[in-house]
Predict the 3D structure of the following.
Amino acid sequence: MSAECIETAYLCGNAFTIVYATAGIPEYWIFNLVDNVLEVFLDSSNGEYKTKRISTALDSIEPLFQKDISLVLSDFLL
């Protein structure tokens, strides 16, 4: 899993998604502080992620690598 936070505008489909998908990283999170959401990319294949989930501060999420924990996104997002 890889995660990053961004505080400035960025383009969807940024270079990191290609790099991480090509490397076989199964799960990539972007804490998008501009739009106040968590973007989760899953199911990497052939240099791209097939699934993108968007979650808000009202949600909680379970990382693939640690299914027995749940992160409350209001602890990370406004």
Q: What stands out?
A: The CA atoms of residues 9 and 54 lie 16 Å apart. The first strand starts at residue 2 and ends at 6.
